[in-house]
Design a protein that fits this description.
Elements lengths: L20 E2 L5 E3 H16 L1 H10 L27 H10 L4 E2 L1 H6 L2 H4 L4 H6 L2 E2 L3 E3 L6 E3 L2 H14 L6 E5 L5 H14 L13 H11 L8 H5 L3 E5 L3 H4 L3 H10 L3 E5 L9 E3 L4 H5 L3 E2 L3 E3 L6 H18 L6 H7 E2 L1 H8 L4 H8 L3 H13 L3 E5 L1 H4 L4 H14 L9 E4 L6 H6 L8 H11 L11 H9 L5 E5 L3 H4 L3 H9 L3 E6 L12 E6 L8 E2 L2 E2 L2 E4 L4 E5 L13 H13 L7 H6 L1 H11 L6 H4 L5 E2 L17 E2 L14 E7 L4 E2 L2 E2 L9 E2 L4 E4 L1 H6 L7 E8 L2 E12 L6 E5 L24 E7 L2
Parallel strand pairs: 2-10, 3-4, 7-16, 8-9, 8-14, 9-12, 13-24, 14-15, 16-17, 17-18, 25-32, 29-31
Antiparallel strand pairs: 1-28, 5-6, 5-18, 10-11, 19-20, 21-22, 22-23, 25-33, 26-27, 29-32, 30-31, 30-33
Helix pairs in contact: 1-2, 1-3, 7-26, 8-26, 9-20, 14-17, 14-18, 14-20, 23-25
The structure holds ligand MGD (2 copies) and molybdenum atom.
One ligand MGD binds next to helix 11, helix 19, strand 25 and strand 26.
Length: 766
């Protein structure tokens, strides 16, 4: 599909089918097969020597943090191999020996490249020199670093207000890079800082802030081991956070129980063969989920309400189910919640949830008799219109049980990108924090803007309307990550200049503003040497622990620069050396950046020393049972409504999910091994009864269409795969399906796109 700009670039690439092969979905995750797959991938991309060298240093105290997910390494680390199959794939993808340079771009126009799939684009390998796409050209050509900084500054000077500039951040950047980047945007005068978490855990951030006072999870990894019940809702750890399975396994070995709430029976939650111990390699593996609740898409609130209702009845009969001392001492809203739950009918909740009565009873029993409870979740809860309320309802359960701020309890929004939490902590956010602005004035010497900026959906809208003209991205693949690919492409193409600080080629480099810059940077695994000294950066994991990361591999090219260096040079060029922030000095010496982070960012303290080894935990109010920042100084129970979708007979709820062979928009391979899908991504998972009822047949080729605001949005060419998924629900991979997610449909309060519950119809492809 061509976009409206004069460059004829495709927003989807080829939709030709490959040779799809189907097998039964796997019950077991990882084990030796996982290790074999990982090494195969690593050796192919990086070569044997480089792979082994790098793997020995990944997630170790003196090495680098895995660039894949944000799951923490154990506080008391025992495994010499603290990585997983998908971590190895992420490393191999970054440390690949494939490369592209000026002659590649001379041969290949952006128009031609855009006809390829995202998988093919990523396969070209690392970008090795700065490139520019001039206004009337379809070929990138080389540009010097200094010329690119000047070009950026010239464009910034042309803006009539700093608010015409937008600065996006993906979650793989270090704290040091993100801090400089956020402070540069503010020094320029704008809070337009959308970031990937707007599309991800923003709903968690809002829900947790409103109920518990801070937008981060409270459980630590150590809490997992002796928890009595762990609920995993809307998350696929076997693929997306494989090392989490080791923690769940440990909990089970200590007698804990795991409950999975998911429309799909994901491998890993069913059975896990831990490749890091002998039992897992040679034995039968551990069954992880004791209870699987196959919820219908977006009916988690129905389950949570049903659980609360049944627990409340038991509590009345036999005191001790709820923690009344805790409720009295620390919470607000108990009576209102109990009154509201009376309005719901058990049978109705049960039928909405799609889960059997027996399984609900089993779950109620576990929750009634245990109090060390942790609730984990990811995109299956956040990416809905009611994403914030989904999470608040589960927080209600924890508060009723007094399962907050005590050992082996708490909230666990499992973060995606390896440093997405750190980026937010050190100042990447679109809203205004008065305290932060005061400290910026005090320690960095400038007045930070006081007007709220654009988040992701607002930024797209502003660009589309021509209100934003300059768009810079610190990593990521904005076009493919955002919803409504066609609309987002049109938005980006409205810009005068788009700037991408990136490691590898992706579609956002091809669908660009009038002029585009491609600035190549180091990956996490690469050595960052300045004046003969090897430097490290810091990362914050999903549980709020800050730790050092030092790359060990030779950089992909001598012509690429570190992220802090690129940002500092842009800032110094534009704001000049007279600015109150010593940009260049900070990029020369990261200790200077860390000192400023300690001064400006609350909770960061003596990071230089404390980030060594296992690192240090940032303070968390809920861990201390301090709710003084909330109304009445108490944690807030909340009243949340049931969602309603009113589906017609031929309408389905679509969830857009990840395969086992991708990291977000980076497609490593074409298999989804655990779900039994090989060599094809354009598949649509559908219940066999629905296939029959709609008059389709398995492997038939169909289009998926959504109808919102009187507009049809269609993703074409998907093969139907019969799959165990609730009736009325379908699933297909992201980002191929983003085209049907409307830009203006997102969660209340958090603006997270509704990527897990898009109302669609299915039709035979023409
Ligand atoms: N290998 C690998 N690791 C990754 C990533 C990756 O792409 N690849 N991405 C990283 C990022 S940025 C993130 S945010 C995380 C994402 O991690 P996940 O959130 O696990 O990723 P998704 O594939 O989006 O899966 C969502 C899960 O929610 C379920 N689900 C969908 N709708 C509902 C619902 O309404 N209710 C419930 N209960 N469940 C539902 C789906 O069946 C699926 O199992 O992973 C991170 N780690
Ligand atoms: N429909 C649908 N849409 C979704 C989702 C969904 O589940 N469904 N999930 C959403 C979620 S949870 C997220 S987090 C977003 C992800 O959105 P993004 O974070 O924007 O996307 P990624 O695919 O992670 O970005 C990959 C690109 O980052 C660059 N890169 C990789 N490593 C580095 C590095 O170290 N430094 C720099 N500077 N660049 C690097 C590479 O060029 C690579 O092509 O997508 C969201 N979009
Ligand atoms: Mo994410």
């Amino acid at each position: 599909m061509a976009s409206s700009f004069r460059r004829k670039v495709s927003i989807s690439g080829s939709k030709d089918f490959l040779d799809l092969r189907l097998e039964s979905p796997m019950k077991k995750a990882a084990g030796m097969l996982g290790v074999k797959e990982a090494l195969k991938h690593g050796f192919k991309e990086m070569g044997v020597i480089k792979s082994m060298g790098a793997l020995l240093q990944m997630n170790q105290d003196k090495g680098f943090e895995c660039p894949s997910c944000a799951w923490p390494i154990p506080d008391k680390q025992s495994n010499f191999a603290e990585y997983c199959e998908n971590g190895v794939k992420a490393l191999a993808d970054e440390a690949t020996s494939s490369q592209i340079n000026a002659s590649f771009f001379k041969e290949n126009s952006v128009e031609k490249l855009s006809e390829l799939t995202d998988y093919q684009l990523n396969k070209f390998g690392r970008i090795t020199e700065p490139m520019v796409l001039r206004a009337n050209s379809v070929h990138y050509e080389p540009i010097t670093w200094q010329e690119s900084y000047t070009l950026i500054s010239e464009e910034l000077k042309k803006l009539s207000s700093p608010d015409q500039a937008v600065f996006y951040t993906s979650g793989r950047s270090s704290n040091e890079a993100a801090f400089l980047y956020g402070m540069f945007a503010r020094a320029l005068g704008t809070n337009n800082m959308p970031d990937c978490s707007n599309m991800c855990h923003e709903s968690s951030g809002v829900a947790l802030s409103e109920t518990l006072g801070m937008g981060k999870g409270s459980a630590t990894l150590e809490d997992f081991y002796e928890a009595e019940v762990i609920i995993v809702a809307g998350q696929n750890p076997g693929t997306n956070h494989p090392r989490m399975l080791s923690a769940l396994e440990k909990c089970k070995e200590n007698g804990g129980k795991v409950i999975s709430i998911n429309p799909l029976e994901e491998a890993g939650l069913v059975n896990f063969k831990n490749p890091q111990n002998l039992k897992g390699v040679f034995g039968p593996g551990q069954d992880i989920a004791d209870i699987h609740l196959p919820v219908k898409i977006n009916q988690d609130i129905a389950i949570a309400k049903l659980l609360i209702k049944k627990l409340a009845i038991l509590d009345k009969l036999n005191k001790g189910v709820f923690d009344h001392d805790f409720i009295k001492k620390y919470t607000d809203g108990y009576e209102a919640l109990m009154a509201d739950i009376e309005n719901y009918d058990e049978e109705e909740l049960l039928s909405k949830s799609g889960v059997s009565k027996e399984k609900i009873e089993e779950t109620v029993k576990l929750l009634a008799t245990n109090s060390k409870i942790i609730i984990c979740w990811a995109m299956g809860l956040t990416q809905h219109k009611n994403g914030v309320e989904n999470i608040k309802e589960f927080v209600n359960i924890l508060l009723l049980k007094g399962a907050i701020g005590k050992p082996n309890t708490g909230t666990c929004p499992v973060r995606g990108h390896s440093n997405v939490q750190g980026d937010r902590s050190v100042g990447i956010m679109h809203f205004v924090n008065k305290d932060l602005n005061t400290r910026i004035k005090q320690h960095l010497g400038f007045n930070a803007p006081t007007k709220e900026g654009y988040d992701t959906v607002e930024a797209i809208h502003a660009m589309h309307e021509g209100k934003a003209k300059f768009f810079m991205c610190l990593g990521g693949n904005f076009l493919m990550a955002a919803s409504d690919t066609q609309y987002t492409a049109e938005a980006i193409e409205q810009c005068n200049l788009t700037v991408q600080i990136s490691t590898k080629l992706n579609r956002t480099h091809l669908v660009t503003g009038k002029t585009a810059l491609l600035l190549p940077t180091f990956g996490r695994s690469e050595k960052d040497i300045k004046n003969g000294k090897q430097r490290y950066v810091t990362i914050e994991n999903s549980m709020g622990r800050v730790r050092q990361s030092m790359g060990i591999l030779k950089p992909a090219s001598g012509a690429i620069k570190s992220e802090p260096e690129i940002i500092a040079e842009i800032a110094a060029t534009h704001l000049t050396d007279n600015h109150s922030v010593p940009w260049r000095a900070m990029a020369n010496d990261y200790e200077l950046i860390r000192t400023k982070i300690d001064q400006v960012i609350k909770g960061y303290n003596n990071t230089k020393d404390r980030s060594k080894g296992k690192g240090y935990y940032l303070p968390h109010n809920a861990r201390e049972l301090d709710f003084s920042m909330l109304p009445n100084g108490r944690a807030q129970m909340s009243i949340n409504k049931l969602p309603s979708h009113n589906l017609e007979k031929d309408e389905f709820l679509l969830m857009t999910i990840r395969s086992h062979d991708q990291f977000n928009t980076t497609i490593y391979g074409l298999d989804d091994r655990y779900r039994g899908v090989y060599n094809e991504r354009r598949v649509l998972f559908m219940n066999p009864e629905d296939i029959k009822q709609q008059g389709f047949s398995p492997l038939q080729i169909v289009d998926i269409t959504s109808f919102y605001d009187n507009k049809k949005r269609t993703a074409t060419n998907f093969k139907i795969v019969a799959y165990k998924i609730p009736r009325g629900n379908i699933a297909a991979y992201y980002p191929e399906t983003n085209i049907v997610v409307p830009y203006n449909q997102y969660a209340d309060k958090s603006n997270t796109p509704i990527s897990k519950s898009v109302k669609v119809k299915i039709s035979t492809s023409k």
